[in-house]
Amino acid sequence: MKQPIKTAARRIRLRCALTGIAVALAGLVVFANILAWRHARALMHYSDFTGIKPRLESVESEDKLAILFDGIEIPRPESDDTPDELAPDCVKILIEEPDGITLGAWYCNRGTSSPLVILFHGYTEDKTALIPEARIYLKLGASVLLVDFRGSGESSEDYTTIGFKEGDDVTAAVNYARQSLQHTKIILSGYSMGAAAILRAVAANGISPDGIVAEAVFDTMLNTVRNRFHMLNAPAFPGAELLVFWGGVQVGFDGFEHNPVEYAAAVQCPILFMHGTDDPRALLSEGQNVYDAVPSQKMFRVFPNVAHQSYVEADPAAWEQAVKDLLLAADAITQEP
Fold first, then answer.
1. What backbone torsions phi and psi does residue 220 show, to the nearest 5 degrees?
2. 116-120 and 143-147: which strand pairing?
3. Residue 183: inside a domain
4. Is pLDDT at 70 greater than 80 in this prediction?
5. Are strands 91-96 and 298-303 parallel, antiparallel or unpaired?
6. Which residue has the higher pLDDT, 7 or 40?
7. Quick one: 154 and 216 in the same domain?
8. Gap between the Cα atoms of 31 and 325, Å rounded
9. How far does the chain reach from its first CA to its final CA, in angstroms?
10. Residue 103 has what pLDDT?
11. CA-wise closest residue to 104 among 181, 172, 184
């Protein structure tokens, strides 16, 4: 009689243990998704926070654990600079999208016979971050149009999709330029998120620029999110997958389909890729993957010992020569005798 009782007791204890494990695992899953939701919210939405935005590269080790739990609050990217900071004749314009989104932009006109370079900034930046690049394009004889993506600078909205819906912003800027500015050639120049948005606009919306400059581009959104975890010395799985999923849910897109390496197959014009060897956010190998996927005329310029930062500031002469080569390949400028 004692043996069946002992057996039943063991079964009860086993069931209780298994139930406890199941509850603990369920709690862990719920907790992981709550953390991912919070991180996604911080990643995709700009805040009213007025402090200095932190960079993961400069975060102290003891603060990284807090960031893993709380995320980083990112202030809306904006600047007090005015168009004359770029050039005396530079003016503000507004670009209206069909869905009511308004994009702020600066335009410097060097004549309709000059090529127009439309510049698109990176994540957590606004158009003023591109002033050094724009000055060199002006020096080379081009007109420039610097555009704020949605959520940044003088544009409407308060969110970002790391280049996915920003592809529509690129398309709106190109359509505006063709209808209202009428330059002979249109070159698109984008940094990081800006480069991803350009490639998406080409693949998804069928825009056809005469040339493209793509700096520090990532190959997939999942990989660039994984890189953020690596910078915090944290395992990327499954946090990166959860963050990409919930980020897409929050702002209405599928982050797993946001892959510049796939968009690149649609490029039909000359394209210049530039990448730093020490970039922890968009690895050099990622830029090479996107480059390899392009079927058209292409160039790749490497900046040694440079991270995720302005290449024109790191090596102005090399940057200027690289974009000049692209403009020549696109027949946008002529070679000096």
1. -140, 150
2. parallel
3. yes
4. no
5. unpaired
6. 40
7. yes
8. 51
9. 106
10. 98
11. 172
Burial 120-156 (b: 16+ CB within 10 A, else e): bbbbbbbbbbbbebbebbbebebbbbbbbbbbbbbbe
* Average pLDDT of the segment spanning 40-44: 88
Burial of 246 (0-12, 13-18, 19+ CB in 10 A): buried
Question: Do 172 and 216 fall into the same domain?
Answer: yes
| Domain hosting residue 163, numbered range | 83-220+258-329
How does pLDDT run across 228-274, given as a tens digit for each residue? Answer: 989 888 888 888 999 999 999 999 999 999 999 999 999 999 999 99
pLDDT of residue 147: 98
Sheet holding 116-120, edge to edge: 91-96, 102-108, 143-147, 116-120, 186-191, 211-215, 271-276, 298-303
Same domain, 50 and 63: yes
Tokens of 182: 């009428």
Structurally, the chain folds into a number of domains equal to 2
Q: How much is the pLDDT for 2?
A: 55
**The domain that contains 122 carries what CATH number?**
3.40.50.1820
Element (H, E) at 244: helix 239-251
Listed in sequence order, the residues at least 6 apart from 141 whose beta carbon sits closer than 8 Å to its beta carbon are 110, 114, 115, 333
Residue 221, pLDDT score: 97
